[in-house]
Each structure stands twice: as C-alpha cells, then as structure tokens.
Amino acid sequence: MLLDFDRLGPLRWLLVGVGGAVSLFLLLPVLFIVALSFGNSQWLMFPPPGWTLQWYSMLFSDPGWFDSLMTSVELGLVVMVLSVVLGLFASLALTRGDFRGRALLKSFFLTPMVLPVVVLAVALYGFFLRIGLTGTLVGFVIGHLIIALPFSIIAISNSLESFDTSLEDAALICGASPFEVKWRVTLPAIRLGLFAAAIFSFLASWDEVVVSIFMSSPTLQTLPVRIWGTLRQDLTPVIAAASSLLVGLTVVLMLLGLVLKRGKS
Asked: Which end of the chain is more exposed for a tag (fewer CB within 10 A), N or C?
C-alpha cells in the first residue's frame, strides 16, 4: 500500500525535516573534506582561514599523483568494458538458460559482494604472488573485475527479466537472424541496465582500495592507494583535493545515470 504524501498534513514537514537531517548527517563528512581541499592552510584545518586552488595545482603537477589518477581512470575503463561484456553473457545464461544448478551459479557470481574484501584481497595476493601478477595492470584488472562483475550481473539480469521476449519472437518471425535480434532488439531494450552496469563497474574499480593495496607496487598505484599511503605520512590538503576528485566523479556518474533514467521514463 502506497502512502499518500500530500495528505499527511503537518506530519509531512516532519518527515521532510527528518529526511533532510539524515541526508545532512551522511553528507557532512564529504562536504567537510571538499571544503578542506580549497583551504589555504597547509594543515587540515576547519574552517579554512582562506580559500585557494593551490592543492589542486599541486595534485595535477605532481607526477606521482597524476600517474595514480591516470592509472585509476585507465583501470576503471578497462574493468567497466570487461564487466559489461562478461556480465551480459553471464546474465543471458542465467535468465535465458535452462540448466540444472542455475540458481547456485547465480549465487556463486554474487559471492564477491558478501565475502569480506580483505579475505578476497589476501587470497588474490597469495595466488598472484605465485604466478607473478602482483604489481601488474593485469593483476589489478582481474582483482577489480571480480569485485565489479556482480554489480554488472545484477543490473543486466534485472533488465533482461523485465524485458518482453515476445519482441524477439516477432523479430525472428520477420526474418531477422538471432544475432540481429540481440543487436537490434534486445540490447537497445536493456540499454539502461547496460549503462547502470557500466557505471557501477567503473565506480567499483574507481573506489576500490583494499584489493588495490595488495596489488600495488612502488611504480603502479591507484589514486585511493596513493591517498592511503600519503595519509600515513602527512596530513597535507592535497589528500583532500584527491579525495574530492574521487567523490566528484562518483557524484557526476550517479547524476548522469539518474538523468538517463528520467529521460526514458
């Protein structure tokens, strides 16, 4: 039963106030770190005595920080593409396939979401250490892909399950090949699911720190690992600037997904 929000009267404003207070409580640490990234103090002081962009200038001019940023972007894009492609094939098998153990296989694909990340990181580190993949981009991609793939499978599977398969049958009757049906009918119909899978897969890689710490090397680090390592040595506001970049890109991608969803509805 849906609640008619307009008929709540004074209770309506109480709910709005509570919702706003909870939102502020959740967002306050984020706003705090963004404000610190523009402060002109060399220490993390709040409120800042003044405002400046020097920390962002230092961030982009420092080769170490810039290389870590580009590594995170490159890694996120590669993981995003692989996660969507593999997630699409896995979702098609899980939603259209008729074989024994399908539910068990789906649960297996979602295991990385419930398994403690540090356990997964230690296991990957021990395995990659034996085969020489620690400190390599391939090792990073595999580790992040394991974390991102469940998000992709969930998003694409939900789109496929709500898709009317009679449209595919109609296309087949009209003479389209199975490949043309998938390319011209199925994929456009589930494009929001594909886009959601791409966003969450990129963000899963973009924000990942635990697995990245075990996979990193002195010459190959992601931005979250660089933040973590610098935080252990110095409380420079450059850390706040780098953190603001992480938050900013996350917010932009989530807003883009919301706009596309509203555009379709």
From this structure: N
Instruction: Write the pLDDT tens digit of every residue in 145-165.
Output: 999 999 999 999 888 888 777
Instruction: List the domain boundaries for the chain.
Output: 62-264
Closest CA to 127 of 209, 211, 201: 211
Q: Give the whole-angstrom CA distance, residue 135 versus residue 225.
A: 12
62-264 topology per CATH:
MetI-like fold (1.10.3720)
Please tell me the distance from the alpha carbon of residue 154 to that of residue 200, in angstroms, as a whole number: 10
In the block, residue with structure tokens 């699409």: 88
Give the CA angle between residues 265, 254, 119 to the nearest 5°: 125
Name the band, by pLDDT with cuts 50, 70 and 90, for residue 76.
very high
Are the C-beta atoms of residues 120 and 150 closer than 8 Å to each other?
Answer: no
**Alpha-carbon separation of residue 184 from 31, 124, 167, 177, 260 (angstroms):** 44, 39, 11, 10, 20
| 206/222 Cα distance (integer angstroms) | 8
Q: How far apart are CA 76 and CA 206, in angstroms?
A: 6
Task: Identify the CA nearest to 168 among candidates 81, 92, 261.
Answer: 92
Comparing 3-17, 214-228, 250-264, the range with the smallest average pLDDT is: 3-17
Q: From the centroid of its chain, how far is CA 131?
A: 28
Residues 160, 91 contacting (CB under 8 angstroms): yes
The reported pTM is 0.82
Q: Do 78 and 68 contact (CB within 8 A), yes or no?
A: no
Residue 63, classified by CB atoms within 10 Å of its CB into exposed (0-12), middle (13-18) or buried (19+), is exposed
Q: Which residues of 108-126 are buried (b: 16+ CB within 10 A; e: fewer)?
A: ebeebeeeeeeebbeebbe
